[in-house]
Amino acid sequence: MDKNPSRRHILPKQIISDWDEVLEKIPRFSEAETGLLRTAIKYSLPPVSRTDILFAIKFYLEDINPETKIQTENLVKLLPIRQDKCEKVATSHPLYTAMQLISTPDEISTSFQKSCRRMLSRYFSIQTSDSHPVTLYQDIIKVRDVLIMVRYKGIEGPRTGEKDDQYLMGLVNQHLTTEKYIPKDLKNKIPTFHKLFRGINKITLDDKTSRLPGHKTGDRPPQRRRKNKRNQDELLDNAIKDSLKKRADRQQQAQILPDETQDRQGEKRAESEFDDLISRGQYHITQVADSTSPDYSAEPDEHVETLQRKKPSTMTAADDRVVVQYAQRMSQIDTLSSMTDIHRPTSEQIMEGLIRCRNNPVQWSLATLLLCTGMPLARLQKLKADTEQVSTADKPNVPPLLIENGTVLTYQLLDGPSGSVNNDNHRWVTLALPDALIQALQQAVLAHGQSPFIRATQPLKRRLSQEIDNTPGLPLTPARLTAGSWMLIRPAALDNIAAKSLSGRYGIALSAPAAYRALAPGELNEIFQKVVGYLLASLRSYPAPHWLKSPPIAWSITPNPNPATWHTGSARAVPVNAYRSWFGWMHHGMGQALRRFISPAPHQRSPRDLLDAVAISAAHAYLVMLLATGCRPHGHRVRCERLDGHIWLADKNSRRALESRWIAVSRELQASLDAHKVLVEAAAKWLDREGYTINDHRLIGQWSLSAEINWTHSRKMTVTPITHRGFIQLLSNLQPVGSHASLVPDEAESNVTRHSVATYCRRRLSETQISAMLGHVHGFRQQGPGSSATAPARSHWQAVISELLKEAGYRELTRSSLQHALRH
Fold first, then answer.
1. At CA 644, angle to CA 640 and CA 645, rounded to 5?
2. Of 36, 2, 1, which Cα lies nearest the Cα of 19?
3. By three-state DSSP, how is residue 678 classified?
4. Contact assessment for residue 108 and residue 63, using Cβ atoms and an 8 Å cutoff
5. Which of 569, 545, 562, 586 is nearest to 706 (CA)?
6. What is the pLDDT of residues 407-452, one digit of tens each?
7. CA atoms of 513 and 417, how far apart (whole Å)
8. Which residue of 128, 460, 616, 647 lies most exposed, with the fewest beta carbons within 10 A?
9. How many CA atoms lie within 13 A of 817 on its CB side?
C-alpha cells in the first residue's frame, strides 16, 4: 500500500480510473458484461481484486438489478488481477468498507441494508469539482456510524414511493427521541448526517446549514443566530440598572444619616465587598482566639479572623496567602499599577558600583546607560555604532544605534504610539549623549568594534560583585541596575509615560495611555540629562580615569541635535482652537433654522425646520460632551447616565471589556445637556399637538445622551441618541461652501477630540486624573481609577475643562426663542 499522503485518501474518479486500466486489457467481454462491471464498480468503488469486485457485484445485484442472468463468478475469474482480498483499504476505499461493515453475511439481503447501501452510493460515489478526499472520507465515516447506530434485524424497508435517505432520516430522528443515552461521539456525527441530507435534497432552512459530500464548507443562511446567547444590550442594561440603583441608595442614605453613621456604613460596605469576593472562592472566614495573649481565659478577639478551606487541599499556607492577596488586588478600589520592584538596589549601592567600574570605559558606560534609560540588558548589549548614517525610519527592527559620530543614541519604542502615514519619527527615542559618555563609548568601540557591549555583561557582573562579603542587601548585578533606574528617572519626568519611554517599551501596565503619547525628543533628552548629571558624581569626586580626556567639572545639559517637528502628546491631536470653526458653523446653522421655523405663522410652520434645529442642538451638546469628558465616539453600544453632578459613562465599544467610569460633570456640559433636554421635550409636545406619533427608541442608559428626532414615516417620528456618524454628516452639511477650515469633519480622525483632550490636559492635570477621565482602567471591574481620586481636586479639574472649552470657542447655543415659539 502506498503510504504517500496523496494516495491515502482517494477520490472516486481515481478508483474508477484504476479499474478502467484493468478493463481495457480484456477485449473478450461482451458489452453487457463490461457494462455490469463498470456499473458495479461505480456503485461501491471497490479496490482492485477479484474478491472485492465479487462483493461489489453482489451489492449491486441485490440492491439495483436482481434479475440479471450473467454468471458473475466466471466473469470475475477472467480478470487479470489478484485473487486475494486487499488489506488496509479502509482509508483509500471508505465507501466499499462502509458497505461491508453495514452488510454482515446474514443481513446482506435485508431491506434496511439495501437502503443503507443505496443511500451511501447515492451520496458518495459521485465526485464534484470541489470535493476534498479527506473531507469525503470523514463524511463517509460519520454517516456509516450513524447508520450502524440504527441497525436492527427485522426492520422493514421504505414504503412505496419513499426515498431511502428519507426513510433512514426518519429512523435516525426516531432513535434520537426514544433513546435515553447516546454516546457523545455519535451526537457529534449526527449533525453531519443532517447537513448532507439537506445538501443532497436541496433543502434550505433559515436556521440550518447544508453542504454537499466532500465539501469543506456549506451554505450558511444569512439569518442564522445563536438562540441560547443572551442579548448583549440586555446584559448591559441590567448592569446599568444595578449600578444606578446602588449609587442612588447610597446617595439617599448619605443625605439622611450623620457623618459618623456614614463612616460606619462605608466600612461595613467595604467589608461586605471583600467578604463577597472571598465567598466566591474555596474559603470561609472563621474567628479564632489570639493564642499569643498571656491571658488564655480572655474572650477571643472578634477582629482576629482567619481563612480556612471549605474542602481539604494539598496547597500550602503560602498558596492561600497568594490567593487572598489576589482577591484584595481585584477588589473594587481606586488604584493604579505601581512601579515597584523588590530587587532595586539603594542609591548607595548604585554609586558604589559605578565607582568600582569607573576605570573601565566599557563597563562604566554600560552601567550608566542601564541606569539612565532602564533598558533591558538583553537589548542594550546589542547596541551598535552606525557608521553608515542610515535613516532609522527605514529600519523598523534595529538594535539601539550610536549615530552622529557617536554623539547621539537612538532606539525604537517597541510598543509605543502607532505610526503615522508620512513619518514614524515619534516612535523613536533620540538622546544627546554628554561628553563623558561619548568618550567612554568611543574607547569601547575602539577596543571591541561596532558592538562594544556584546561580551561586556559577565565582566561587569564580576566587577559589581567584588568586595560584597560585608555589604548588606542583595548583591549588585546589571539586571538590578535596570531595576533601580526607576528611582532615578521617575522624579525627573512629568509622568510615568515619559519615564517609561526611556526604556524603549511601555509594557502592559501603561499600554493604553501610550496610544495618546508622541513624546518630543527634547523632553526625553532633558530627563536623560538630569539622570546622567546625578550619576556623573562617580567621576567628579575621584581622580579622573585614564580614558577621560576632559573631566566634566562644569557640566550642563547637552541640547538635542534633532529637534522634533511635533509637540508632546498624541500624533492625532489637533490644537483645541481648531474646534472654533465647528462651534461657529453650528451657531450660524442654528440661527438660520430658527428663522425658517419662526418666520411663518404658527399654523404654517414646518416640522422639518424644527427637526433641523433639534439636530443642531444635539450636535452642539454632543461636541461639548466630547471635549468636556474625552469620551470615545458614540456608537450604538454607548450608555450614559447623569446623577447628582456626575456622569456614568460606558463608551468602550467592545464585547470583551464592558468598562465604565464615573466622571464629574462640568458646568458647561451640565448646562448644555439640560437645555437640549428641555428643547427635545418641547419639540415632542409640539409635534404631538400637530398630529405626529412620537416613539422613543432610546434604551436604558441612553436618556442622558444628546437625542435627535428623526422622520421614519409620513406621520411617525422616533427619538434616538445622536451617533458620531450623524454628527460628522451634520457638520459637513453646515460647513460653508469654499471655507478653508483647519479641521475638516470628513477628513478628521473619529477620535480626534479624545486625543486632543488628552494632549491638552497632560501638563495641566495629574496622570491619575487623566486616566480617570479617559477610562484607562488597570484592574478588575473598576469604576475608573480616578472616580474618587479626582474628587479633592475637582475645582482645579473644572478650571482646566472650562479653559479648554473657552479656547475651543464654546458658547451656549441660543434655544430660548425656539422654546418660546413651541409653547405658543
1. 75
2. 36
3. helix
4. no
5. 586
6. 889 888 887 666 655 566 777 888 888 888 888 898 999 888 889 9
7. 9
8. 128
9. 13
